[in-house]
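Input.
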Amino acid sequence: MNKRTLNPDASLQAAYGARLRSMREARGWTQEELADRTEYSAVHISAVETGRKPPTLRFSRSTDRAFGLVGTGDTFERQFREITNGNLLEGFPEYVKYEGRAAEIRLYEIGIVPGLLQTPEYARVLADSALRRGTITAEQAEERVAFLAERQAALERPRLPTMLVVMDESCVRRQVGGPEVMRAQLDQLVQFAELPNIVLQIAPYAIGERRTFDLPMNLLTMSDLSVVAYAESQLRGHLERDTAAVLPLLTAYHQLQAEALPQAASVAMINEARKGTL
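Output.
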């Protein structure tokens, strides 16, 4: 029987199938034996491994139980969520892998609170809004919220990453989800600002042309001191690892921090905005 060669770099689905085969063979299991452990047929296992059939959430959870991956940080369920989040822009799934290991995370956001700082209710409102516009399906809306929760959970590790967050003033002025949702979100921002590993600043409208970025920007410093940048437009995302390209972005971020309000003044602005939700 000819064994089909797998190329895990071809797509996220191909990577899923290649990993499934690799882990099965590492345990010495045949497709039939894995099928017995997952309550799927050997034909189904083969189709997922070769990319002819996409994995499902139920299949992924069953596979995690079979391989003893439930509760770990590298489950097939998480890999499935990366695949099914078709609304994620290119480069973002790869960025998230770096994000979960970064020593320092620098964020700049315009218009909405950065995802890592969002409450579940705020995140849900944004996903439901995209669903109503028809840009994502109901299943993708669920996956988007769950994926964000996983990103947030990945940062809760023994050695917490340092987070430097600059938000445009529009992030706290623009009401999302109505007064109750927004009030809870602003309360959480104030609580975040009290954490020892977080520096939170607002870039006020008053800085005008001195704002160094016109689009959201994420910069990650890894444990080896390398820096990764991620930026996106409405249509696409871009992950940049080339040092020569990333260092000017890091400089621009430092310049933005210098123009932004100090943390105490930023918290005062957040509390002022919160009064508008009462």
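The CA atoms of residues 89 and 235 lie 7 Å apart.
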